[in-house]
Structures are given as structure tokens and as C-alpha cells.
């Protein structure tokens, strides 16, 4: 036996594959070897050949990857996909709004997944800016890893120490006692001062940061949250066009031991400043007896789409100063969620609070998953049966009842 020739089996299938192999080889030769002569040689694409030969069903569905345009002057598919076409967003009239994300350098992995999802599900189309805030300077690595995720403007801000740390006038002995008392009750973050700094910052200071001054509406995003659905309508524009103050996706009851004296403080405030209580408010969301006791309902503030001018306004400023003067952010563990929720429920009208039922969202073990048409339209990656909306400890029924 001399030279081994490939045995030519003449079944139609073999022939088809042989033709494909020859076409691929010729295609490769023409495009690679003669690429300098690009315009002079019309190289039929595999798809066209396949179509002509009647075996297009064997080919991948029309993707452009098998027909790289190698003619001189054209950019490679890779480069052109990097050269993102943003002209569709150029003319988009954005609302006066930004994302805000409070985090630390150590949160990098969770920040990346949160921003990636927001970009994929919503912001790629709109390019709303991002403002990231940290009590320490962001590292170069952090900034590089986050910047690559979006074309939208991103700013990295440092929180002024006076907006973050426990004020001098807080009685540290009393604060320490408060913390150990709470630890004895097994309450989450009971012993943490940084957690309290964060709650106080989110209650009274974030909207004062210089990087947020140019904006009115914000969407608060946290590290390691999930956005399950395409967000087809622009929630910022919805807020602006409908004069909304506060938007939420999850509401629930607070752990009472973290806020033992909050409601009595609120009641004091109401007596002292009755002029700030808005007609048509949602006291009934907070209290089942017209304000005598707090039912612990609040909007879960790790997700918020809201109006910073409301926090900057007179009513909320007076309210925050009043709470701050009691020291409850440190002597107890007042959270920004009940603080924001109480303020919105009392100083805004119920028509200005909005449930974003179409936004699928998860933080820790709680999630809101849309259902029905919203679930379909949003291509939601969550089980519509797993939603916190109407389970025990959800306050959504109380919210619904406001509008009956
Ligand atoms: C190919 O593309 C057509 C048109 O977009 C689509 O209807 C079809 O389902 C695709 N087929 C496959 C196998 O992806
Ligand atoms: C596939 O591409 C061919 C040639 O570009 C085109 O004529 C045909 O309509 C395309 N088919 C689909 C399903 O997109
Ligand atoms: C960018 O997209 C717009 C609309 O989507 C289109 O009209 C325009 O031709 C595109 N520009 C480039 C350079 O691809
Ligand atoms: C956006 O809102 C902020 C806060 O209300 C305001 O200072 C700023 O002028 C607004 N910007 C525009 C372009 O309207
Ligand atoms: C928007 O809400 C404010 C109260 O926050 C109210 O004073 C104002 O009249 C409202 N504007 C419109 C256009 O409804």
C-alpha cells in the first residue's frame, strides 16, 4: 500500500459535508491570503453559499460571526462592538436623577454584580449617572473594575467624617450600654457602631453629599442585590412626571427592640410641629390606631427611588434634627428604613408614595417578584410564586389599604 487516499463514500450526506469543508477552506484562503485585495474579491458568505446549496439548516442561524468583514477600512466586529452605539441614548431626555450606591472597597464583588444587572436590565439604554460613596477613599482597582461596567458617568465620592462618625456629644457610656443591652437580646448588628453610622448617614446625610447636589431623584442600590426583570419604563421619569416622592418594592415590619423610643419621639415631634403633617398622609400605613402606637411597618430602604428634595426640605430637616438630638441612632439602633418611612408617610401625601410592582428585586432573603403580565413583559428571572408581597410580616396589604 502506498499513499492512503481518503476513501470517497458517495452517500449524499458525505458529499454535503465535503462541500462544506471545501467551501470553508476556500473561504479561509481567499479572506486570509488575499485580504489585501479585499474589495476586488467578492467572497460569498457561508450563509449565502449554504442558502444557495440548500443546506442552510446545517448552518448556525444568521449570526455575523461567520462572515467577518475584512475589507480595508472596516472595523473588526470586536472593535465595533466595543465602540458602542450610544446615539440612541444621546437624544434621550433623562430625568434629573442618579443612582447612588454606598459601599466599601471590600464590597467590590457585590458592587460589580449589582451594577452589572442594573446596566443590563435598564441603564444600558438610558445612561443615568452613578455616584458611589465610601467612608474611605476607593482603591484604583475598585474604580477600574466598576468603570468598565458602563458608559454612563460614574463618580467616586468620599463621605465627610462629620457625616459618618458618631458625634462628639453622644454619651459613649450610654451608647455602650445600649449596644450590650441589644446584644443580650440577640439583635442583628446590635454591637456594631459602623452599622449605626451607616443608618444615620442614610437617614440624614447622603443627600447632602456634594456629588449628589446636581440631582433631585435617586435610586439607591446596594452591593449584592438582584434585579430580576427588564425595566422597560423609566422609573425616574415616572417619579418626575407623576410628582412622586418615594418608591419602594418591599415593605415589612421592623424589629421593635431596635427602636424602643422612636415612636414616642415621633409623637413628640407631631405635637411640636403639627404644620408639617400633610393632609392625605399615610398615617394608616404606620399605625392601626391613628397614631397612638406604631405597627412597625416600613418600606425597605435598601431599595429606594425617591426625591432628595423631600429630604432636603424643611419638614424632613426639622424631623431629622429632632431625632438626631435624641441620640437614638447610637443609644438605640434606629434604622434609616423606619425613619424614612415615617417621614414619607407623614409629610407627603399618600398619592406620592409608589409601589414599583414591575421591578423584580432581591436583597438578602427577601424578594419581590412581579407576576402576570409584568413578569412576562420584564422577562423576569424569578419565580412569581416567591414574592414577599402578601406573606406574614409584609406591610404591602397596609399600603394597598391606603387606596381603598
Ligand atoms: C433563527 O432566527 C429566526 C429569525 O430571527 C428565528 O425565528 C428562529 O427561531 C431562529 N432559529 C434558531 C434555531 O435560533
Ligand atoms: C439570513 O441571512 C440571509 C442573507 O443575509 C437573509 O436573506 C435571510 O433573510 C436571513 N434569515 C433570517 C431568518 O434572518
Ligand atoms: C446607531 O443606532 C442608531 C439607532 O439605533 C442608528 O440610526 C445609527 O445608524 C447607528 N449608528 C452607527 C454608527 O451604527
Ligand atoms: C436637578 O435637581 C437639583 C435638585 O433639585 C437642582 O439643584 C438642579 O438644578 C436640577 N437640575 C436640572 C438640570 O434641572
Ligand atoms: C407636587 O407635590 C407637591 C407636594 O410635595 C405639591 O405642593 C405640588 O403642588 C405638586 N405638584 C403637582 C404638579 O401636582
Automatic annotation (TrEMBL):
CC per GO annotation: Golgi apparatus; membrane
Record's keyword terms, sorted: Membrane, Transferase, Transmembrane, Transmembrane helix
One of the GO biological process terms: cell wall mannoprotein biosynthetic process
Coiled-coil regions, chain positions: none
Pfam family, one: Glyco_transf_15
Span of the signal peptide: none
InterPro entries associated with the record: Glyco_trans_15, Nucleotide-diphossugar_trans
Gene3D superfamilies assigned to the protein according to its UniProt record, in alphabetical order: Spore Coat Polysaccharide Biosynthesis Protein SpsA, Chain A
SUPFAM superfamilies: Nucleotide-diphospho-sugar transferases
Membrane-spanning segments: 15-34
Statement: the UniProt record of this protein carries the keyword Nucleus: no
Protein name: Glycosyltransferase family 15 protein
Species name: Cyclocybe aegerita (Black poplar mushroom)
